[in-house]
Write a structure and sequence with these properties.
By secondary structure, the chain is of the alpha/beta class. It folds into two domains: 111 residues, 3-Layer(aba) Sandwich (Rossmann fold), CATH 3.40.50; 154 residues, Rossmann fold (3-Layer(aba) Sandwich), CATH 3.40.50. 42% of the residues lie in helices and 15% in strands. The protein is built from nine helices and eight strands. The strands form two sheets. It has a four-stranded parallel β-sheet, with helices on both faces. The chain has a four-stranded parallel β-sheet with strand order 6-5-7-8, sandwiched between helices. The radius of gyration is 25 Å and the shape is elongated. The N and C termini lie far apart (70 Å). 26% of the residues are buried.
Length: 289
């Protein structure tokens, strides 16, 4: 009698669960917090249901219907106490956890400041000075990308300098969302940096580096995406790229600029390091990183 073949177990891809994000504003805070929490668990993949600008019973009821159809964790930032009570009561009836994610922070702030909590919906998105500063910083980053308008760099808070594909542009955009004016200039073999850089004293100048292997990988992917064969062969040549990085590092050391290796850093991590350096510069404690 032939042996019955053993069934091979399929690899487990991940565990899915539903998470409902309910906000009376844009939902940005909830989305960031949910992603940060889910990232702490390996093999756990959230299915996000996002409900934003929930400011009426009718809008809330639609969200509750979907929560009942797809039970999971409910995270909210509801300010309106009546709507919040309805949400939490219905979740208790469904035996579903409902968490006001900002509650611990708001309570701590209130106790420390001895101040009452504002009941205004979407108060963090008022068109205040901070909002317009972010818009101005974003416009500045776009206008001063990749070495453009080098004669206006005195207005920058941060100037990033690095070889091609060291995430200069996305880092500048991220910093702009924090209200920081950031410009960037590429280091191109055979091309000198603008003379204006030597006269700058206000912007924090930071050099960005990455490993040759990482740069070559990113550059090759970039060329494939653009279907571009016009780049010189040295653009992805290992020895040429290595020499680029050596020259960049020597330049940064000669100028005394702080250096960040972005090889294993996300845009957020690189930006956090730059913000830390900027704070040190503003307080007169700037060192290296």
């Amino acid at each position: 009698m032939p042996e019955t073949p053993l069934k091979t177990a399929l690899p487990r891809i991940g565990t899915y669960f539903h998470v409902h994000l309910i906000s009376d504003s844009t939902g940005e805070t909830l989305n960031a917090l949910a992603k940060a929490a889910a990232a702490r668990f390996e093999g756990i993949l959230p299915i996000e249901h996002i409900y934003v600008l929930i400011r009426s019973e009718k809008q809330l009821e639609r969200a509750l219907e979907e929560i009942e159809s797809f039970p999971g964790i409910v995270l909210h930032t509801m300010v309106d106490m009546e709507l919040r009570s309805q949400l939490e009561l219905r979740c208790r009836e469904l035996d579903i956890p409902a968490i006001g994610v900002l509650d611990p922070l708001v309570v701590a702030f209130s106790r420390h400041l001895g101040a009452a909590v504002s009941k205004r919906v979407g108060a963090q998105h008022n068109l205040d000075n901070e909002y317009f500063e972010r818009i101005e910083a974003l416009n500045y980053a776009i206008a001063h990308d990749d070495g453009a308008m080098a004669d206006k760099l005195k207005q920058a808070d941060v100037l990033l300098i690095g070889v091609s594909r060291t995430s200069k542009t996305p880092t500048c955009i991220y910093l702009a969302h924090r209200g920081i004016k950031a410009a960037n200039i590429p280091l191109v073999p055979g091309r000198d940096l603008p003379e204006e850089i030597d006269q700058l004293d206000i912007p924090l100048i930071v050099g960005l580096l990455a490993s040759p292997e990482r740069l070559i990988q990113i550059r090759r992917n970039r060329l494939l995406t653009l279907n571009n064969d016009d780049r010189p062969s040295t653009y992805t040549d290992q020895e040429a790229v290595r020499q680029e990085i050596i020259a960049a590092r020597r330049l940064f050391e000669r100028k005394g600029w702080p250096v960040i290796d972005v090889t294993r850093r996300s845009i957020e991590e690189t930006s956090a390091a730059i913000i830390s350096l900027l704070n040190e510069k503003r307080t007169g404690r700037l060192g290296g990183i």
